[in-house]
Amino acid sequence: MYAAVKRRWRNSPRPWMPLPKTLFAKHALNTPPIVRSVAELRTAVAAARRAGKKIGLVPTMGALHAGHVSLVEASAAECGFTVVTVFVNPTQFGPKEDFSKYPRTLEADVAAVGKAGADLVFAPEPSEVYPAGYATYVEIAGVAEPLEGECRPGHFRGVATVVLKLFQMAGADVAYFGRKDYQQTLVVRQMVRDFDVPIEIRVQPTIREADGLAMSSRNVYLSAAQRQSALVISRALSKTEAAAAAGERDVWKLRDILQTELATVPEVRVQYAVVADAETLREPAVLDRPCVALVAAFVGTTRLIDNLPLAPLK
Ligand code: AMP
Fold first, then answer.
1. Which numbered atom of ligand 1 lies nearest the CA of 180?
2. Are 48 and 12 in the same domain?
3. Is the pTM of this model over 0.85?
4. Is 152 a domain residue?
5. Which range of residues forms the domain containing residue 85?
6. Residue 231 falls within a domain, yes or no?
7. 183 in ligand 1 pocket by Cβ < 6 Å?
8. Is 206 in the pocket of ligand 1 (CB under 6 A)?
9. N or C: the chain end with fewer CB closer than 10 Å?
10. Whether residue 199 is found in the same domain as residue 267
């Protein structure tokens, strides 16, 4: 790589000048191009495909952190061409939610995903995704209905719509999602099955801060004190997971462990805290199948979600 930079510099109009320091920086070599239109995205993907490359897609809303980066790395490890989309999707936010204040940090995002192996960033304007006259939405029943579906009416309609559109635009072979948004992964899988979308869905583990807090673009909204309070969420999930691993099979008892721990920090206002079937999200009586403990809670005005899989018992 460095040799390539030196070669390029020797062939430049001023080869007698010292190599600029910025060219040493890794990001100077790895910054992927940003495209804004579907046409440019398709052209770039078609070229990669002609070169025989497998196409990986990482849909994001930007304000990227190590969780997002882990998805990009997974794609880069498996696919010859990785597209990261950065789009704060208006249709998945409720009218009173944080669409307008959602953090937007495109320059830093591009640098971060470049280092992680992304080949292209697709960052469209809302008008490119939803042009005037836009009228089609994806509604998913069943798994999209409880939990987030109840707390955020219309959220999964917006998610499924934009994800299907991104799949159509990019024509990728594999798409990468985080387990952090557990219900979202079920919704996307349901849609892919129901609409026969020719794409593989990979789900990557939740990346956490050293103290256990699940990484989220919304963590920047938290004050130092709120951030401390928020730790009860991962603590409560870990306690529940430990009880399940120690042999507790009564789902109501497990839910009680989860809710009791959450209640120790009154600044954390719980929306739901449940132990649910990992496929259907229904609450079984006994932990006799793969389950997930899921939490949504407000810390101040910031809404956080987190979950942990509970080991199925033999
Ligand atoms: P977002 O930008 O929040 O819409 O997230 C884009 C993708 O990154 C989704 O598939 C998320 O599930 C995933 N993601 C967000 N936070 C994390 C995390 N802490 N660990 C792993 N994946 C994450």
1. 12
2. yes
3. yes
4. yes
5. 2-204
6. yes
7. no
8. yes
9. C
10. no
Closest Cα to atom 7 of ligand 1? 60
Residues 236 and 294 in one domain: yes
241 and 155: one domain? no
68 is catalytic: yes
Mutate to test the pocket of ligand 1, among 58, 60, 82, 306 (most ligand atoms within 8 A of CB): 60
Tens of each residue's pLDDT in the chain, 314 residues: 444 444 444 444 444 445 444 444 444 568 999 999 999 999 999 999 999 999 999 999 999 999 999 999 999 999 999 999 999 999 999 999 999 999 999 999 999 999 999 999 999 999 999 999 999 999 999 999 999 999 999 999 999 999 999 999 999 999 999 999 999 999 999 999 999 999 999 999 999 999 999 999 999 999 999 999 999 999 999 999 999 999 999 999 999 999 999 999 999 999 999 999 999 999 999 999 999 999 999 999 999 999 999 976 45
- Do 174 and 60 lie in one domain? The reply is yes
Instruction: Say whether both 252 and 221 belong to one domain.
Output: yes
Which ligand 1 atom sits nearest the alpha carbon of residue 205? 21
Number of domains in the chain: 2
- 182 and 118 both lie in a single domain: yes
* Distance from the alpha carbon of residue 19 to the mean position of ligand 1, in angstroms: 38
Query: For residues 89 and 107, what is the distance between their CA atoms, to the nearest angstrom?
Result: 18
